[in-house]
């Protein structure tokens, strides 16, 4: 079972450069959340702050009653045992085969016997579809397989929180779809709290329970998937629908002249909200909400065609980054 991660007033600068200020949100226990935003908005910095690799200038990150931002090294060491982390490139040790890479956290942090380690490693490799590849070196397999091996390693200590950084980076659309399905299936099985950083808009529209958007040194919005996918807030609408009209430009913000030139342009309609990806078993996840529930409860009319089986296939200009 996952745990809540409560972030309050988090602020981080490097020298005189402010990365983000007063970031406040809660990652609900056992739910899949996604954080996105233009390049350079500090998404990976946020992940590193959550696990204590980077100390924020202000604010708190509370997990199981412990504030990661101010706790002792001993407390931090214990809290980190709740985490599994999948880095962008898998972060495999190149000289070790996949089995030894996946076994590494067990050998470092537990006193389990080699037979018990083998049982756990093979179980996790089976979970991510890598049985038969355990003795290959990272350089002998594809990028997608390296990411799955990294995910197996993130799972060996049975984490309650999974942090996943750009899982679709370098993957083609088909393998991105496979890894999205894998995340949904894993969440259904282990009920951990997921935070995924991504640029892939299709993934954002169909995978998470919650979406957050970092923009212009602050958290522009965070909430249930349907809330953001039906939002008319200019930055959220533009980014989640991959549109050129809006405040985001090539250099993060458009200037006043560019915005003035767009003032009389009609905004493209919001595309339909697709059905959320379900586990392969067909049994909804514990945290999965019925289609359209948030919109109904909040009196929001979703875009036409929403929540139909074919809504994810509607041509809207939305695609992977």
Beta-strand portion reads 15-25%
CATH topology of the domain at 5-82 and 159-262: Rossmann fold
- CATH homologous superfamily label of the domain at 5-82 and 159-262: P-loop containing nucleotide triphosphate hydrolases
Average pLDDT number? 89
Oligomeric status? single chain
Can you tell me the residue ranges where pLDDT is under 50 for at least 5 consecutive residues? 314-321
CATH architecture of the domain at 5-82 and 159-262: 3-Layer(aba) Sandwich
Strand segment tally: 12
Ends distance: 32 Å
| Computed structural class | alpha/beta
Order of helices and strands: EEEHEEHEHHHEHEHEEHHEEHH
Q: What order do the strands of the largest sheet run in, or round the barrel if closed?
A: 6-7-8-3-9-10
Task: Please report the first level of CATH classification, the CATH class of the domain at 5-82 and 159-262.
Answer: Alpha Beta
What radius of gyration results from the CA coordinates? 20 Å
Helix content, binned percent = 25-40%
- Helix run count: 11
Main sheet properties: 6 strands, mixed
Shape: globular
